[in-house]
Amino acid sequence: MSDTSPSSAEESIFSVDTLLKYMGNDAKALAIVSKIVRDACAPRMAPFEQAATALREQRLQEAGKIFHSLRGSIGTLGARRLVQSSLELEKAIVEQHIDAIPALFTALESEYQLVLRDADAWLQRNAPQGV
C-alpha cells in the first residue's frame, strides 16, 4: 500500500506487508491491520517501565514474561530485529546472566522505539481516515 519499498534493514524493524497480503491487501485488510498496529503499539513505553521495575526488584521471571508478551504482540508487525533482541534478553534472564541484562535491555528498548517510530509513520501514511 506504500509506493516505496523499504530496505531489508528497515523492513526488519517494522513491516506489515506480509500481514496485509495474507488478509487480502484491500481496504478492509488495511483497516484491520491499522487497528492491529494501533493496539499493539498503544502501551507505548509502559512495558519497559514495568520490566525495568521488575528487574530492579529482582523479579526476573516477571520481567521475562513482560518481554515475551511484548515480543508476541509486536512480532506480528514484522519486527524481526525486535524479536531477535527480545529472545537474547529473555535467554539472559532465564539463564540469570545478570551482567548481560542491562545492555540487552537497552538494545531491546532501542529496537522497540524504532518499531514505534516506524509504526506511527506507517499509520500516518496508510491508515484509513476516520478509523
From TrEMBL:
<dbReference type="InterPro" id="IPR008207">
    <property type="entry name" value="Sig_transdc_His_kin_Hpt_dom"/>
</dbReference>
<feature type="modified residue" description="Phosphohistidine">
    <location>
        <position position="68"/>
    </location>
</feature>
<dbReference type="GO" id="GO:0000160">
    <property type="term" value="P:phosphorelay signal transduction system"/>
</dbReference>
<dbReference type="InterPro" id="IPR036641">
    <property type="entry name" value="HPT_dom_sf"/>
</dbReference>
<keyword id="KW-0902">Two-component regulatory system</keyword>
<dbReference type="GO" id="GO:0004672">
    <property type="term" value="F:protein kinase activity"/>
</dbReference>
<protein>
    <submittedName>
        <fullName>Hpt domain-containing protein</fullName>
    </submittedName>
</protein>
<keyword id="KW-0597">Phosphoprotein</keyword>
<feature type="domain" description="HPt">
    <location>
        <begin position="26"/>
        <end position="122"/>
    </location>
</feature>
<dbReference type="Pfam" id="PF01627">
    <property type="entry name" value="Hpt"/>
</dbReference>
